[in-house]
Design goal:
The chain is built from 17 helices and no strands. It has a single domain, classed as Growth Hormone, Chain: A, CATH 1.20.1250.20. The protein is mainly alpha-helical.
């Protein structure tokens, strides 16, 4: 039976679909706003992503321990409503003629904090809503939302920026958060209140999550590989729009269409990941998809004016496919191997080591782009992403075909 016949998951899926699309619109529109409207430098554009993701470094681990103590659905609803207010302030300020780069930074910092709380609660909420044997198809459907949003949003962002302007495009993201909040409020399945620790100790609880991940023979290499991959991926992403506009001389609509074509691989991945992992084994599929991510970002570094812009499409197509395959299998592996009482903390730990690398990578990309040039920085980021795969080939994952399905007992304190 299709997972979408589960009525409560269908509401969660509907909330996620348009919210993902709105977030993709902002992801494309915010750097274009900085480049085309506010005349930002390379480093200033890179700092946008740093502001948006810096909260993972500060709050990521605390959010996991907190999510294991509270009901997650109210957190999701309130985070969506507050993000809607924050992003709505950008088109309002633009309409009044007072929008500045400083305001965009100020909006992105609290929005990033709310995103940390939302993402950790979202990952913790799914195992509370679905049975363990339905987590893989559930994660695949949510990843399909991510893929569809990546494809449609990438093209729509460029076209809408050229048609409506970047500020109004960001306003559509605010509306998508309202949509998400309404669907999440419609979920009726009672969420049990998690068992509270007899003696709450936040530092010990965070340590439990860190210890579980970094003492686990499979989760540790996955965490380290993801951290290095996200570092270099963020470095490339922070300067890519600047490179395409100022070095390759593309218009916003062209950037959007090319990104949309390339990201079709993400939609294909969300449809075939479950089938591929059953046939070849999820461990082997995870290893190959991680390698493909490194190859994809190295290929993107070949992008140049003229016919060589096709390398951007090819790299984006391969990256979209491999990132979604890797994401589905990593999240499902993490949820299966983790005991129920550690779901929030393990999710936060994995998010912390991956997303926590993003602000550092964005800053790295802006600094390298300013010092050595945009094209050289893309090569550094591509080869760095490819090299990060080595940690998986040196781990027990290399010898496995299938990853175990039973939760692993938590190590003793």
């Amino acid at each position: 039976m299709s997972i979408l016949r589960h009525p409560e998951f269908r509401r969660l899926w509907a909330a996620d679909l348009l919210s993902q699309l709105g977030s993709r619109l902002s992801m494309g529109a915010i750097p274009l706003l900085a480049v085309l409207t506010l005349n930002a430098s390379t480093l200033q554009v890179a700092l946008l992503r740093t502001c948006e993701t810096a909260a993972w470094l500060v709050l990521g681990l605390f959010a996991g321990a907190w999510a294991d103590r509270v009901r997650c659905r109210p957190v999701l609803v309130h985070a969506d409503l507050l993000r809607a207010i924050l992003f709505a302030s950008i088109p309002v300020a633009w309409w009044l003629g007072v929008l500045t780069l400083t305001q965009v930074y100020v909006v992105l910092v609290p929005a990033g904090i709310l995103t940390v709380l939302f993402d950790v609660a979202h990952n913790s909420y799914l195992p509370r809503l679905l049975e363990p044997d339905r987590l893989l198809p559930g994660n695949a459907k949510l990843a399909a939302n991510h893929s569809i949003a990546a494809v449609v949003g990438a093209g729509a962002a460029g076209i809408l920026v050229q048609w409506l302007g970047a500020a109004l495009t960001i306003g559509l993201d605010a509306l998508s958060f309202l949509w998400s909040a309404l669907w999440l409020r419609s979920i009726r399945t009672p969420e049990p209140r998690p068992e509270q620790p007899a003696r709450p100790n936040l530092r010990r609880e965070i340590g439990d999550g860190l210890r579980f991940v970094f003492q686990h023979p499979l989760l540790r290499p996955l965490a380290l590989n993801t951290m290095a991959t996200m570092l270099f991926q963020a470095a490339a992403g922070a300067i890519m729009v600047v490179y395409l506009v100022r070095a390759v001389h593309l218009q916003p609509a062209t950037i959007g269409v090319l990104s949309m074509i390339g990201l079709l691989g993400a939609i294909v991945a969300s449809a075939v990941t479950e089938r591929i992992s059953r046939r070849y084994g999820d461990a082997r599929t995870l290893l190959l998809s991680s390698t493909g991510i490194g190859i994809a970002f190295t290929v993107q570094a070949l992008t140049a004016p003229g016919w060589a812009v096709n390398w951007f499409v090819i790299g984006t197509l391969l990256a979209g496919f491999c990132i979604i395959v890797s994401h589905i299998l990593q999240v499902s592996t993490q949820q299966r191997l983790c005991p129920p009482d550690l779901q929030g903390r393990v999710s936060a730990t994995m998010s912390f080591v991956s997303w926590g690398a993003t602000p550092l990578g964005s800053l790295l990309g802006g600094t390298l782009g300013t010092a050595f040039g945009l094209h050289t920085t893309l090569w550094i980021a591509g080869l760095g992403t490819l090299t990060a795969t080595a940690v998986l080939y040196l781990s027990p994952l290399r010898a496995l075909r299938t990853i175990p399905t039973d939760p692993t007992p938590a190590p003793a304190p």
